[in-house]
Amino acid sequence: DELFGGYLTYPATLGHAAASSRLPMPIRRALAHAGRRLPTSESKVSSTYKARRFLRALHLAPSIAHFTWNGTWLPEEARRLVISPVLAGEVSNALTRLAATHGLPARPSLRELQHADVREYLANDILVKSDRMSMAHGLEVRAPFLDPDLAEFALRLPAWLKVSASGRTKRVLPQLAGQTYGADVTGARKQGFSIPVHTWLRGPARSLVADLLAPESTADVPGLDPRAIDGVVAEHLSGRSSYGFELWGLMVLVAWHRRYVRHTVAAPHGPLPRVIDVSACAA
């Protein structure tokens, strides 16, 4: 998807750039405000969910909005979750710094977005998950499209062979695959691996929410505002808002802090390590 333009985030960002160049900022802000209140179906990548995600970030630069499509807090939302003014400034500018790290201009091209995702999303998310889960079960997993020659070739392809003007993604790959597998396979609807996190947090994982995002838990993490977080949790659990992905990330932060900061890891028992003179071994 990173190499052949298969993510829906690509036409979303390109469409965002086109809209932001035509609409004045007051209208974009009004649409963003309305988008955050749009009634949303939480079924897998529903049309209303995509519309809400798109509209709520319309006031941001396209390069920054690109990093919000997959469940990131908006800068103004993240700002409200911390107490310290210094931290508020840091979290407000986090996505701006991320875009600058990858050299994205305000209105990036498809190729620039792909390069950013290869360096950020692919390396720090997708491959990390596949490596950890496969090794945990004794499996060697390979990603065949990441052959260096193939990757370089794919990234050099012109944009029109990847994303069409109508928003169709990964155009060249189904055409090639269709020659071998036929239209029944290549014309099937794409299925991602995202989990139904919104409903899980209201149901099977509600006890995790009650544990990790309780005010006494979030108060242990320096800088977080327990009252503000409690309000967002209540909005989600009531069904008034869909903050599943955002709350999941916050839960991971609290769990990490509890495990590695609040409770120090004890040193293993046993004899002290023996010092070896490497130069003597070499002689």
Spans with pLDDT under 50 lasting ≥5 residues? Answer: none
Sum up the overall morphology in one term: globular
Alpha carbon gyration radius: 22 Å
Mean pLDDT: 90
> Span from first to last CA?
53 Å
What does this structure look like?
It contains 17 helices and no strands. 22% of the residues are buried. The protein starts with 8 loop residues before the first helix and ends with a helix. α2 packs across α3 (47-56). It has helices at residues 9-22, 25-35, 47-56, 62-65, 75-79, 85-92, 94-101, 110-136, 148-156, 172-181, 183-186, 197-202, 206-212, 215-218, 226-238, 244-262, 278-282. Helix content is 58%, strand content 0%.
Task: Give a brief outline of the structure.
By secondary structure, this protein is mainly α. 58% of the residues lie in helices and 0% in strands.
How are the SSEs placed, and which strands pair?
Elements: H1 9-22, H2 25-35, H3 47-56, H4 62-65, H5 75-79, H6 85-92, H7 94-101, H8 110-136, H9 148-156, H10 172-181, H11 183-186, H12 197-202, H13 206-212, H14 215-218, H15 226-238, H16 244-262, H17 278-282
Helix pairs in contact: 2-3
